[in-house]
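Let's practice the habit of predicting before peeking. Look at the sequence and jot down your guess about where helices and strands might fall. Then scroll down.
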Amino acid sequence: MGKSLPSASSLPPKDPGGSASQSPKPPRPSAGGDSLALSGPVPALPPFRVPDPSELRRRGWFWKRLRRLLALEGPSDELQVTVFGPLEVVPGQTARLMVNLHRPESADSVHTLARALQSDAELLGSGPVLRDVYRDSEVATHVAVSGAGVAKSLVTFTWRGQPRRLLFDLHIPWEAGAGPAAGIVSVGYNKVRVAKVEISLTVLRRKG
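Done guessing? Here is the structure:
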């Protein structure tokens, strides 16, 4: 008998923000996301919609004007995402990523505090949040790294106007191959992705 064709769920996932030549999207992870599960050859997608950048600008302008007309305008902040962690990871061990959401003027103090709190914290990537975030509103952060398990890939919190530090534990499987491992840190606001930071870790060769 001949070999059966691979199912669609076994094909590598596709990031809608990438080129059309990428592979199809994988099945979404089960609710909760707390178990350690290997992602595919590219990072898994976040559980919120990925819009076109021009749509984010239109939506931001519309809601800002509507809130002003209805006298609902409250304090909001321009935010930045900064990601710290080890540049190199070891198969069979756990590494920690530190994701910071903060106003741009706080970047230097966030960097200093990250190095003080985590000895192997190096700057892995940084990027802007494409919409101002109103205070006392919910923000979600999702982390995915190819070939690594994330203990809790999605974390939500309420933005209060002060820098917020989120910790994500990555488990690197013993059988992981040496070389670069791509990752994506996504920020969701009102169920729409408003920031994406691409990172890269280097998986070292196994010893023994």
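How did you do? The longest helix spans residues 53-69.
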